[in-house]
Design brief:
- Chains A, B, C, D: Residues 140-275 form the GFO/IDH/MocA-like oxidoreductase domain.
- 4 copies of one chain form a homotetramer.
- Chain A has helices at 14-29, 46-56, 65-70, 83-95, 110-123, 137-147, 179-182, 186-189, 191-202, 324-339, 349-368; strands spanning 3-10, 34-42, 60-62, 76-79, 99-102, 127-129, 154-162, 206-214, 219-221, 228-230, 236-243, 248-254, 263-270, 273-278, 284-289, 299-303, 372-373.
- The first copy, chain A, is α/β, with parallel strands linked by helices.
- In chain A, strand 5, helix 5 and strand 6 (127-129) form a beta-alpha-beta unit.
- Chains in contact: A-B, A-C, A-D, B-C, B-D, C-D.
- The structure holds 1,4-dihydronicotinamide adenine dinucleotide (4 copies).
- One 1,4-dihydronicotinamide adenine dinucleotide (NAI) is lined by residues 10-16, 42-44, 65, 80-83, 85, 103-104, 130, 132, 189 of chain A.
Chain lengths: 375, 375, 375, 375
């Protein structure tokens, strides 16, 4: 009989639902070494938890996440709650000996992320953080092309993750606009993805940053209608970066970039070619190579297909397209295989903690108007 | 307690797996009026059936599809076997009082499709045929825009469904290249999608066709290595079409269109605008409207988001992207709601039978070198 | 001293100005074997002719084109008048021993085009017809790629030339909407370009056609405000085509295709690749080839540059872009070199007469609802 | 009789030819207040000058540019020589009371550019610098849209001008790779365009910069074959920018960006919309606006046409496309009208001097690893 892993899911908003879909679909898409079982779900109160458990296909429900992390039946705690809860939930789960699958960014601060990392490593539990865009087969292909040297030595990295989910100034405060619940703003919320992407793709660490942040919409309506409140973190940010092997680059991130819905994009240039990618066209990678007759060189649009990593499990037919949630299905496969020791978990808490460190450094660089080294 | 519908799946190739994924994921994505239960699976032999049932999450397995259709526990028979088996399987299922969810094209010939339609209607069972591309929210949006008159009266329809899955002449015969197993070639296999799309989008029936077919790769290796065998159906086809309200248009279809992987595409032109769509970029619809100052008119790239039909259930965030399998998830939702009487099933056997009629007419038009009316 | 060719230009509307710009610029772009001299210009009356001559840089002007064709100083008669005047102007020019550079379509009917062709050939004068889109380096590249066999044997041709210049039903009659001044409608006006393109690109002759025409806007305001008048030719047309070496294909053409401004586009598919082109992005050719590892195949966007035919004379820098008028500059170069015997003139009256024959056949096919062979 | 302006052109490389084409074509495209006369041409020696004068349609030639600037017949000195010659040529021309049309960047250093600016202003001659990309109607449209407030208050500017003309390390030194002939590298050569564009588009001045430069290919073959020589300026650069009204942004520039041929591109985001432009598709502007129903918002591809500034003179038909050289034709029109006092000349030496100041500040910021204010 197939091994099982009982999952305890905390939080059923945007991400909680995405995780639930992926947990149910993953075993049908991939042949997994263990079956994830949607066992227990926690929400802010018992009634909500019960109704969400029924919707999302979980066997049991609780209004208290501490009950969930303590439940002996649970093997993996899956944290889909707002950022400020990640640390306490993860520490409790680790203390209870559970593996932890957490959403990004790992924590509000580097210090918090470090506490989580140290605790997990000491406890010997496995961890994975939900930077799902690196699971997209198109991006996996980009990394493989870079790693194989097909575009030569890397020369430049340009990345952005811009969206416009808070472009409307009438949108009220939510947990994302407050420092004590979110940490940094666009930089942590979506910028964390492109920072993680930068290191994932290039295989190099970011060693120095020079950052620049802005809060354009300085006040937003309070959700309770009691007036306006200060926005406490950045609406947009940009940074120049240097990497461990001399590569230079830059990133941009925004939550007020009118018109951008899923604006994670990158251009990686090498001495013998270049890659261009835009997550709004997530099934395409543009590849340019110095090769063949000059009059036949151009950016090729590679449509992802079964010859690329992780696509064939979804469809034998090339170019038929994966969606956002399919990235989470791959992430769940990685989680399961990682817990079973068949694959390295990446990014685990240690790597995700680096992202927190980069965010903090960019913020500090902004305040001090200078370049900041990352240790 | 939630109502359930027991599903019996026949065939676990490309489509069988896609259906299985969708059956498992649909209840997590949508709130369904009944829970589809992956109960029984049939394959060509018992061992294969058993292993696939375990992979695809079905409770029981059988090496004989007749057993499946006869099984009293089964509510819906889901036919994912090659075309030539659709009729016998559907007739048996209908005879046993089951609802039928069948892959496309419905049958090898119009006569066969008519027998299936008549049987289903007499038996009063519900039917749905898997022309999944019409479930894509981008295409649902196209239909809504057309129906609302936003682009005016329709003036022209151009459609194609071109792929290159048989462009390589070394690829051996399979069931798709033989008349007794597939019926027509590219025209039935992928062309059926664009014919169905034409009527779905325009809300008009095709009334006259003028067709043109070609088999370019006339012989292919026999799969048993015993030499070469004649290819018995078309590699590519094109047709001009007239519709019930005077609209004119054309379609193209191919299985040897080098470079096209998922080349279903359409351009619908109206008196006040136009729509352009390409399934290789399945999350985008291009909309042009005669409106506003002349210098600001252009094709807009609408990224599908939660404000469009059926997207929000997958993600609250716009532009994050659906994939091929997500279309099947929507199809399963439609199936369940349709069986429960909450929605009209489209295309049912009657409409799918029209597609067979169109295919036959295009073939006849090709042979007779003339326009053919559709009754 | 450099040889000169005195040009007599008739008509100074859209095309007349484009020719004038090209005649002045061509000797600066290319090293020509003879200098075209903008000598004499004819318009409908002397005053208009004089003012246009000053604007367009012509030395002399006349209100009577018969004077121009008879003028002994003139070497080349350049006809930019409406279609119905092409024959009389060309015949007079030929009778006077002039070379003729005429705008397309050559004539209102095949019979007229034949008279012109026979006259020119008997007189031994050189002729060139202004199907300028085939001069675009991107399209010249497409032809070279096809001719060299890089995409294998041709399998399918799809072409269209759709614009929306008459989509607005309030636009009054002009010479383009009347049979006695234009001949056919969209089919002759823009469709002629794509028919010429089809033969130019493939190197094959169209041998059989099956056509379909429509006039959607059946009445338009008379230009004198006296009410409405019948539109006498097609607003849109489509046709299926067979070519001399077995190739099949289709074309579409329209003057009411909302949103399309310069919608000449083609897709040529071969056994080993494909080409996709859209004149709205006239400096790009998309090339797909079955070559190299499967996971690296995709349509490449070739930006035209100095390594491609006829670009380097405009710029040493790749991808910097040519415009519409630059095509006319290349056409003028071809004209001059052709007259000087250094290049074959293509399409000359004989080839342009074929286009008239194709137009007539498509119209007849439409009336008779059958396929028509071209002799 | 029409007024004339005698032009003296110095240098007939890439730019010299482009200017010559434009000088000949401009009076045919536009109705100019004065006719530019291609009178005198200077090159490095008399023979070369004579042959180029014949090719480029100039009446007279000289092997000594000092003769040209001193020639009393000359009204305008047009400098298309390498950067290091701009100052001496311009100062001599100004001293002789000529108007000066100079290629960019204005000078090797800010100090040099200031001397030129002061001299020109004192002498009261008119000046124009060839930052031609701002003449592109698509970019003029972008500026108009921004100025009109259609996209709201500006929030972010992203620009790049990346090409790969020196990506190949085998390419030898030329005047562009040496400090004494070029000044800065990619930053001055192409980066100057995007810096000028940033201020042109936004209508704001850049007030603070933080720069970062790299020379990747540190040695190149000496052109005389005598070995390798040090590359003396940057291969690529990036900078973060702040503007006078609080806008933030960044730019990138490169001469080794594999695959980019004409990679000037920008994205300007405002509170109510955004603009995206790529000079490789120079006839398209992408416009997004927060307007109308949410489900109909998206980036519109505006194809430039006669309703946009400066297009109609080239063609009455929308979307037919301008090319690189057409930008120079518009620039020549601006020059003539500016000299005749009918239009402000922009960028004149004063504004072009700003660009030199920005380049210097970015270089200094790079050396000092800090933000630098621009006075
Ligand atoms: N990987 C990705 O692409 C994305 C990641 N995220 C991350 O996922 C996490 C959650 O974000 P969203 O789902 O967007 O937020 P959300 O606001 O939509 O959902 C948060 C959920 O957590 C629940 N929750 C709050 N406090 C709780 C408590 N004490 N106990 C149990 N449940 C509690 C809320 O009731 C709500 O259902 C965040 O860390 C966010 O950064 C979010 C969106 C995308
Ligand atoms: N909606 C769509 O976009 C698509 C629809 N299809 C349709 O789906 C159907 C199946 O096609 P594929 O999955 O591509 O074929 P396939 O060849 O990949 O799979 C067919 C499956 O049916 C099984 N089968 C054959 N005979 C059987 C029998 N007597 N009893 C039980 N199982 C049997 C085979 O063992 C195999 O697993 C066809 O009608 C095809 O036209 C296929 C691909 C895409
Ligand atoms: N190659 C191409 O892409 C294009 C070709 N054309 C062709 O060019 C020709 C002219 O078309 P347009 O310039 O668009 O027309 P237009 O209507 O803009 O200009 C026609 C010109 O001919 C003049 N004209 C009319 N009768 C005349 C006469 N008896 N004597 C002297 N001049 C006379 C008119 O006054 C007017 O200036 C047509 O054959 C058309 O099909 C037009 C547009 C594009
Ligand atoms: N606006 C734009 O987009 C572009 C501007 N440029 C600018 O144009 C200028 C020239 O660049 P290119 O044409 O690319 O250089 P190039 O090297 O192609 O041509 C320079 C020309 O100047 C001539 N020359 C050199 N010394 C001379 C002298 N003492 N007297 C007379 N002629 C002399 C050379 O013989 C050569 O013909 C530079 O300032 C460059 O930055 C260049 C390319 C594009």
């Amino acid at each position: 009989m197939q091994q099982t892993l009982n999952i305890g899911l905390i939080g059923t908003g945007y991400m909680g639902k995405a995780h639930a879909i992926a947990l149910h679909a993953a075993p049908r898409v991939f042949t997994l070494p263990a079956l994830p079982v949607c066992d227990l779900l926690a929400e802010t109160d018992a009634a909500l938890a019960a109704s969400r458990a029924s919707e999302l296909g979980f066997a049991r429900a609780t209004g208290d996440w501490r009950e969930l992390v303590a439940d002996p039946a649970i093997d993996v705690v899956d944290i889909c709650a707002p950022n400020f809860l990640h640390e306490s939930m993860a520490l409790a789960a680790i203390a209870a000996g559970k593996h932890v699958y957490s959403e990004k960014p790992l924590a509000l601060t580097t210090a918090s992320a470090e506490r989580m990392t140290v605790a997990a490593e000491r406890a010997g539990v496995k961890t994975l953080v939900g930077f799902n865009y690196i699971r997209n087969p198109a991006t996996q292909l980009a990394r493989e092309i870079i790693a194989s040297g097909e575009i030569g030595e890397l020369v430049h990295f340009r990345g952005r993750h811009n969206e416009d989910y808070l472009a409307d100034p009438e949108l009220p405060h939510n947990w994302r606009t407050r420092r004590d619940t979110a940490g940094s703003g666009a930089l942590g919320d979506v910028g964390s993805h492109i920072l993680n992407m930068a290191e994932y793709l290039t295989g190099q660490s970011i060693t120095t940053v020079c950052g620049d942040l802005q809060t354009l919409i300085r006040q937003r309506p309070l959700p309770d209608g009691s007036g306006m409140g200060e926005v406490e973190n950045d609406d947009q940010a940009q940074a120049m970066l240097h990497f461990s092997q001399g590569l230079m680059g830059n990133i941009e991130t925004s939550r007020i970039a009118s018109g951008r819905k899923m604006g994670l994009a990158y251009c990686v240039t090498g001495t013998h070619g270049a890659l261009v990618f835009d997550q709004e066209r997530m099934n395409e990678l543009q590849l340019y190579r110095h090769e063949g007759p000059k009059g036949r060189r151009g950016f090729s649009t590679l449509l992802i297909g079964p010859e690329h990593t992780d696509y064939a499990a979804f469809s034998p037919a090339p170019g038929h397209g994966l969606g956002y949630n399919d990235q989470k299905i791959i992430e769940v496969r990685d989680l399961i295989e990682g817990i079973l020791g068949q694959r390295e978990l990446y990014p685990d808490f240690r790597q995700a903690c680096r992202i927190n460190r980069l965010i903090d450094a960019i913020e500090r660089s902004h305040r001090e108007r200078c370049w900041i080294g990352i240790d």
